[in-house]
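Hey, can you fold this?
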Amino acid sequence: MPSELTTRPLTKHFGVEVLDLNLTRMTRDRLYPQVRALFEEHSALLFRRQSVTPGDHIRIASLFGPIEDRQADERKPGDAFEISQVSNVLPDGSVAAEMDLQTLNLKANQLWHTDSTFLPVPALANLLIGRVVTSSGGETELASTRVAWRDMPEALKARVRDRVVWHRYSHSRARISPELAKLPKFHKWPDRPWPAIWRNPVNGQEALYIASHAFKVAGMSELEGAALIDELVAFCTEPEYIYSHRWQPGDVLIWDERATLHRGMPWPYDQPRTLSSICVSVTDADGLHEMLARAA
């Protein structure tokens, strides 16, 4: 463990809280190498009581890799990148009703998922910051697909180990609302195939790579593949593999998308809730080239 950083475990299996570190002072040469080593080893990092501005958020995220920009094709020349707000607050400051499409999209995030598996280049990490939190509920839960894969019965492993799984953004939204799934933003990218197992090139650890966006397993009927995906997710999300984070303003939670599933939890929908999210994309150093080769 890096000597400059003090940590304590989030669970007995994965994740650490990093104590007494001001993220705004982290640079590529100072503290980031130690933080990145913890990220590779523990899959999830928590930093409490941070004062991270939007500019800080972008700079810190860029240390981990290229910033994911799903709206690049929609912005006009000269328009700046906008940090994604996971929020039920409307532009006029009011709160979206529980059955509004905006809230239904947030409810789709309550399915166990991995960010960006439907993109040509998926996510390495999400850097999520608590901005406005609710009086109850609204937790973000993480499940370690690395530890679950380690513990999984060999018979179940054998059914998926060498398989390729197909992912579609609208698939997860259709599980919540057919109307939501019809929105154009959920059809911008063609279906993506990814191997079911992601090997971390830094430490060689394997993790199951699935998501609520996963709808088909190559070589199986869609019905059979969907049943296998559900079985795998159910195993990975047994209570012993889960960390549940109760948000406080200023909390920063960073997790490895290659080795975890996550979901939001319900909250009182008449209360505002806002989390700021930046995903960064994987590179060849994170295993992208290997995954693309195995998916071909």
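Oh, and this one too while you're at it.
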Amino acid sequence: MQPIKAEQMKFKPGPIAGVIIRELRKHTDERGWLAEIFRQDELEPEYYPVMAYISMSLPEVTRGPHEHVDQSDLFAFIGPSNFKLKMWDNRPGSPTFGNEMTILVGEDHPSLVLVPKGVTHGYKNIGDKPGFVINCANRLFKGEGRREPVDEIRYENLPDSPFQMD
């Protein structure tokens, strides 16, 4: 799949079909807190995680934008910083094709966000301290045994990309 050219696509603000945003409920006691990030009874089987990873982003660091051909991402933005998450519906058959969404997530708004395959996405740490993001992806990175190509179309280094974080 070839990256889209800026002159080929203009996005407008609006919801994106298939994106699920759920506030993470922190259950707090004298030891700290706990929040559920995956429950099999709350997702369709196509989104069940097969691997999970955690990343830490320094202040002002942007990850993406990129999209996946087959992978969906189930992100948990927990802090201790805040992030600006942007998503663009880049799926020609989608009822919300051409829409873009921007939400603030992280320490002030702990959130779980399901990003379906084909939805371009990126996030930026907009806080003043490092922040953590957990991803429970429904596909293995580089496939079984890490023997397949990475399922990713990257846009962050394309100067004429229609997917701009700022």
